[in-house]
Amino acid sequence: MAADKLSWATTEPLGYGKKYTYKASATGSDGKKVELTGSFTTLKPKSTPRATVNPVDDAVVGVGMPISIKFPEGPVQDKAAVEKALKVETSVPVEGSWAWLHDRQVDWRPKEYWPAGTEVKVSANLYGVPYGGGAYGKSDLTTAFTIGRNQVVKIHTPDHRMDVYRDGKLYTSYPASNGKDADPNLNTPNGTMIVMAKEKVGNFSNPRYGYTDVEKLWAVRFSNHGEFIHENEENRANIGKRNTSHGCVNLFEPDAKKYFDSAIIGDPIEVTGSKADMPTTSDVNDWLFSWAQWQSMSALR
């Protein structure tokens, strides 16, 4: 019952496609008792697509990590309705915005990198939200995660080095061989990406260029366009001297191991100096857009 006693609301969401009956009574100022009974039914959705959220609970991620809510079972037509149901809470003030990368994914990223140590809570109150086309949200989602230390990799490809910064200061630097300068298709593309995955042993077979069954150690993926940071002792003669890879960042094996151990998902990787730019069709492309572009991709702008 509301504080003014003029309305009543359920303390839990009603079910889809259900019939509810009610009975109410009240006594007026004249002392007369009034009763009211009735029933109603709730809508039956055409579908109730599930959604997913990332990062997951208790994750510790890098300062470039976006929040992603995906709708794998179907496109969202009413993006504004969905976006209104989303909430991000942070332990310190952080300016950010939601943006629709396509009709099955909406991401939130800060204007600048997250402050280290920020505690983040996300609420997606999607149950009952109309997605359009007769689809309604299946259930609410929540997650709570932490931003780790500030580590950013900077690669200026002509320098043949990979610099690692902590809290804005140079932490360590490794000799590197990047993508071939002469062929833009083989460049390590310009742009800000993030660490997406880590594999102790990565398979780098590429029949298009005539090599198969190629495995390299300490592989850190930073795009779905094909770029990794990994060891390549077979390219030792060029590391630190010439760019000869097919787009990956080649390191000596001990350096690759040290970097692998230091990296966490969501760490930014900033690449400059190449002839080619990372295409915005890469799966994790949040930092490839300017802040103004990013804001324009919100359904509520």
Automatic annotation (TrEMBL):
Record flagged with keyword Metal-binding: no
Species of the source = Actinokineospora soli
L,D-TPase catalytic domain: from which residue to which, for each copy? 151-272
Q: Which UniProt keywords apply?
A: Acyltransferase, Cell shape, Cell wall biogenesis/degradation, Peptidoglycan synthesis, Transferase
**What pathway or pathways are given for this protein in its record?**
Cell wall biogenesis; peptidoglycan biosynthesis
- Active-site positions on this chain: H230, C248
Coiled-coil parts of chain? none
Q: What is this protein called?
A: Ig-like domain-containing protein
